What does this fold into?
Amino acid sequence: MSTTTPPTTGGETVPAVEPARSAPIKAIKLRHPWRMVFAVLLVVIFVSVVVDAALRPAYDWPAVGKYLFDRRISQAAVVTLQLTVYSMVIAIVLGVVLAVMRLSPNPVVKSLAWFYLWIFRGTPVYVQLTIWGLISLIYSSIDVGIPFMDPWVSFETNAALSTFTIAVIGLALNEAAYMAEIVRAGLLAVDRGQEEAATALGMSWSQTMTRVILPQSMRVIIPPTGNEVISMLKTTSLVTAVPFSFELFTRSRDISAETFNPIPLLIVASIWYLFFTSILMVGQYFLEKRFARGVGDRQPDRKDAVGTGTGTLTGVVPVVGSGQPSVIVPPRQDDPPVNPGGVK
Amino acid sequence: MTDVNMRAGASVTVPPMVLAEQVSKSFGSNEVLKSISLEVKRGEVMCLVGPSGSGKSTFLRCINHLEVLSAGRLSVDGELIGYREANGKLFEMAPKEAARQRRDIGMVFQRFNLFPHMTALQNVMEAPIRVKGLPKAQVEQNALDLLARVGLAERANYYPAHLSGGQQQRVAIARALAMEPKLMLFDEPTSALDPELVGEVLDVMKGLAKSGMTMIVVTHEMGFAKEVADSLVFMDGGVVVEAGDPDEILTNPQHRRTQAFLSKVL
It folds into this structure.
């Protein structure tokens, strides 16, 4: 209570009350000596680990430098990126389909989507990739046609599907199960009133979905999808189970099998993975910022719409968390309600 | 425009705008509407009042088939809502047909439900373009006119988050009007607003009523009901307790339940 409030005369034309200036607090800062001690200790430990690593011959840093930009390695890095992008794109499309299926009123469709998730989330991806690798043992040919009749077209599985294709399929189908849950959460985060408003306007279900629900759920879907991309980049190292051997990890293992010097090549692979994930993390940071800002921007004015929201609010909560509205109320002097009927 | 004449003269031959015959609605074992029978004439403004949980909003949502009736019949402009009748049998409507019926019935929600990722103008233009397939230029001109009509011409390119509650609700009214409905449903349009913003929304609604629009308004604004409504319906516990002239009911309620309710809100 250090301010004194000048009395107001009441009425609406009185300008805003000017608060009296209060003196800033002058106090001696509380000291935290143990913080300093721990900080010094941690820095000492960290530096000694780094120095030790730099000098330890087993790491063989010259070999790391030699192989870091080896053609085989950089080609493998490109293949790793391809695996990530292709399987992620398929997984997102399939994930949207599965999420919509899970929300379907048709119990058969719903159960089928649930069954898919149960299988693909319930078994390790490494096991799945191994099974995909043995696909030609299970299905020696791929036939297109009516069941129990002569097929129209028939492929030899081994000839039709390269190990790369099988790796992409294996990764994508596994990832689709996770993407489905992310998309479903996004769809459910959109306020029900949005669907009602669209329905009341006579919009069809597909129009409501594509024009109203999906654009809003994107804000909830995109941040965790970024996580999934980073996760996928690392999961590509498991396609050795197929066996597909031209991606980063398997390639560096193969090289080290010739040189009998595995450690530097594992470091090389790790550096490449770190490089890619760092780029993705930067990208994700900007994406999240952009979408968080969009949500913050679109929060309703607390003063005018207490606890009501315009449909974004439920979607906001899981993403933004703090949800402090940064509301700009534009001046309102130019919009006296015009009377439509010209009366009164 | 010619609302009074239309109301008095045409009601003999033309079906009422809304005809509810013994409409009931249950959610599970909870019966929220119990045999409601009501008639709303063309150009009539009807206010539905009553305590929360009395079934007013549910009844309103039944009219455009957002809720499905459990029993009874409900027709708008002589057309059965949600069902087709042939050879004395009722056939459930396909979603497409139900959507076509909803085009003609505008609805304004308590929480506005504007599309937050679209500007005010885009909100108003969305349905005429997507649902009716009208050319964009024509729709845009019409939308701008509508926004001007609700006093928001200057706010056409604002996102809902940058509008006050009252402005959002006026955009929502313009959005509903853009489909050129023959009936407007208002579900507590001012309940989510700050007291000082209620007036601007009510003014727009008054103008709309004056222009001859048929309106059903669920509201707690007794002043609005008294001034604008042609008829007032008091609901409680899923039944119509009292219906008739607003002045009469508000000043001289017959039923004890109505008296008790009005003594608290007036």
